[in-house]
Write a structure and sequence with these properties.
It is a single chain. By secondary structure, this protein is an alpha/beta fold. Helix content is 42%, strand content 19%. Helix 2 runs parallel beside helix 3 and helix 4 packs across helix 10. The longest helix is centred in the last third of the chain and has 30 residues. It starts with a strand and ends in a 17-residue tail after the last helix. The protein binds 5'-O-[(R)-(carboxyoxy)(hydroxy)phosphoryl]adenosine (KG4) and zinc ion (ZN).
Length: 336
């Protein structure tokens, strides 16, 4: 079965074709990051307009790359939520209309299910059941995964998501949006022992997270080191970035170990934009080893938003006989 996947939930237009026998045939991505960075965050109306501009050209591009025509497709998968309503509507209406015109099934995919299954696109994928840490700009969740669609929420953030915390801390340091990759790059030059930030909610049992306090800590530390012009020297910036990254990574590692112990499972997958973080991958690699478990993640370009994960997730659901009706689904809020 060959499935076209469409992702337009936020600021990346992602399109891909997944073949259940041959694997990923093509994928293309257009990032709007440069356009939004001028405003310090995603501007929903501009995002929707740019998806309209880019989606059909990208669909043509993946078809050409895979040397296929529209008539070779067996299904269309689109992200139906959660995300920005206007942005979602672009992918949902285009995907639904394409499927209708071609007389093939369409399937509405949950964005976080797409992220969760992205490590399945890699060479040695995990097998069910496993524990998943979903860490993106909007979500921080630990999930027990028994199979496609069989998800049990073990714990989540009570306030900011991990990626959101990275973005907010970056803003406080005067860095661009999205701040996660910029903090990570700065942190590489930082002295990780100069400042110690708290590891929120690790001293009590449970698998809940809280990251909003870390931004206050970041702001206070930054303010304490500003010169008369309000500037912070480069080394101090790097040291703060390193302390912040360490605090987030340590907190996530502690909770992941706890989730493995609690479930008795021996596989952990990490997915979502923050799973691209190299320090997180290294630290988690060591943490899961202590539990006698294995760590799995997708290549960096499939950690952040992309069409391949939606094509894959949609293909699995269509193979299981599921399909969405003619209602064009777009749900800005949608629990997985
Ligand atoms: O999954 P994603 O692309 O979009 C959402 O579904 O939210 O995640 C985006 C988030 C942003 O907050 C971004 O700052 C963060 O992932 N991110 C990172 C890194 N790359 C992306 N955070 C830390 N380190 C990174 N290398
Ligand atoms: Zn995402």
């Amino acid at each position: 079965m060959r499935v076209l996947g469409i992702e337009t939930s936020c600021d990346e237009t992602g399109v891909a074709i997944f073949d259940s026998e041959k694997g990923l045939l093509a994928d293309a991505l257009y990032s709007q990051v440069a356009m939004h960075s001028e405003y310090g965050g995603v501007v929903p109306e501009l995002a929707s307009r740019d998806h309209v501009r880019k989606l059909l050209p990208l669909i043509r591009e993946v078809l050409a790359e895979a040397q296929l025509s529209l008539h070779d497709l067996d299904g269309v998968a689109f992200t139906a939520g959660p995300g920005l309503i206007g942005a979602l509507m672009v992918g949902a209406s285009t995907g639904r209309a394409l499927a209708m015109g071609l007389g093939i099934p369409a399937i509405a995919v949950h964005h976080m299910e797409g992220h969760l299954l992205a490590p399945m696109l890699e060479e040695n994928p995990p097998s069910f059941p496993f524990v998943a840490l979903l860490v993106s700009g909007g979500h921080t969740q630990l999930v027990k995964v028994e199979g496609i669609g069989e998800y049990e929420l073990l714990g989540e953030s009570l306030d900011d998501a991990a990626g959101e915390a990275f973005d907010k801390a970056a803003k406080m340091l005067g860095l661009d949006y999205p701040g996660g990759p910029l903090i990570a790059r700065l942190a590489e030059k930082g002295d990780r022992s100069r400042f110690r930030f708290p590891r929120p909610m690790t001293d009590r049992p449970g698998l809940e997270f809280s990251f909003s306090g870390l931004k206050t800590f970041t702001l206070n530390t930054a303010n304490a080191h500003r010169d008369e012009q309000g500037q912070i020297d480069d080394q101090t910036m790097a040291d703060i970035a390193a302390a912040f990254e360490d605090a987030v990574v340590d907190t996530l590692s502690i909770k992941c170990r706890r989730a493995l112990q609690q479930t008795g499972l021996k596989q952990l997958i990490i997915a979502g934009g923050v799973s691209a973080n190299r320090h997180l991958r290294l630290k988690l690699e060591a943490a899961v080893k202590k539990e006698g478990a294995e760590l799995y993640y997708a290549r960096a370009k499939f950690c952040t938003d992309n069409g391949a994960m939606i094509a894959y997730a949609g293909c699995q659901r269509l193979l299981a006989g599921q399909a969405s009706d003619l209602t064009i689904l777009a749900k800005p809020r949608w629990p997985m």
